[in-house]
Amino acid sequence: MKNIKLIEVPSEIGAGTRGASLGIEAIKIAALDFMSNFFIHFPSEKIQTENKLLYEPIESPYAKRIKGIAAIYDRVSKAVSDSIKNNFFPVVLSGDHSTAGATIAGIKMAKPKSKLGVIWIDAHADLHTPYTTPSGNVHGMPMAASINKNNEECAVHELDAETTAHWNYLKNIGKIAPKVLPEDVVFISLRDFEKEEKFLIEKYDMKVITTKEVRSKGAENVVRAVLRYLSDCTDIYISFDVDSLDSSISKGTGTPVSNGLKEREAEDLISKFMQNRKVCCFEITEVNPTLDKENLMAEIAFNILQRSVNVLMMN
């Protein structure tokens, strides 16, 4: 049986819309509403945030608050790495998706020799860089940091020295870069990305599985195909951004997009992936209860979390 450790990262300085830092508490409230004592069962660690930066002027327009994000990368990567080294399975609950780069770094720091596969269940590719970003929000960049790409071919911004230094720090944290090879990344339900991100996906032939494909082939077949595709990998990390769900149910997230997964599809996909022994870390991110009525997004996230962890415990 796997020992599970919850790592709570209530940071939202990488997002453009306020409120994601409240997502973890919202998931806990959903658990209480479902009469579940899930959060009492497992040891947990709460990562200190830099959310105070939200009240300060922005210094780096093409990577907003990246200095604070670098500090959080240090804390999250250490927490994830320590958990894995102590034989825990880290389940990361994060506010915004920017810190997923730190989760990936932590896995690699604990297992530097591993060939890591990433299953990125998200409406967005998060392959922007400070050179290409339309928004400057760092939650659109963790995948680019993890594969160690600047995408200079598509650059639209000139960076100042400090932003460049912080961005290089994110890419090289743990003194391993890239953390993941582009061919070892699988995007599921990806449907909202810019031409600069498309350039990287096509250049490196990154694998994309659309919502339509999930629906026509069924969760089981998709999971089998993805695991076959990642068969060279020794370890697998699953990152679940709730905006992968259809906008009809994902109101409670900063960037909802139509034509996404149904709750059941996401739940089936993730719980089937979790049966695989290579999976070494799971993350849920971008629940924003301030955009939601009835705490629906957090309830859906909790259902997926609970079912996934149950599968882990049974393995």
CATH class: Alpha Beta
Alpha carbon gyration radius: 18 Å
State the end-to-end CA separation: 6 Å
> Major beta sheet, specifics?
8 strands, parallel
> Helical segment tally?
11
Compute the average pLDDT. 97
Overall body shape: globular
Structural class: alpha/beta
CATH topology: the name is: Arginase, Chain A
SSE ordering: EHHEHEHEHHEHEHHEHEH
How much strand content do the residues show? 5-15%
Runs with pLDDT <50, length 5+? none
- The helix content, as a percent range, equals 25-40%
Strand order of the largest sheet: 2-1-3-8-7-4-5-6
What is the name of the CATH superfamily? Ureohydrolase domain
Number of strands: 8
CATH architecture: 3-Layer(aba) Sandwich
Count of individual domains: 1
Characterize the structure shown.
The chain is of the alpha/beta class. The protein has one domain (3-314): Ureohydrolase domain (Arginase, Chain A, 3-Layer(aba) Sandwich), CATH 3.40.800.10. Helices cover 38% and strands 14% of the residues. The chain is built from eleven helices and eight strands. Strands 2-1-3-8-7-4-5-6 form an eight-stranded parallel beta sheet, sandwiched between helices. Helix 7 (195-203) links the parallel strand 5 and strand 6 (207-209). The longest helix is centred in the first third of the chain and has 20 residues, at 66-85. The model has no long low-confidence stretch (mean pLDDT 97).
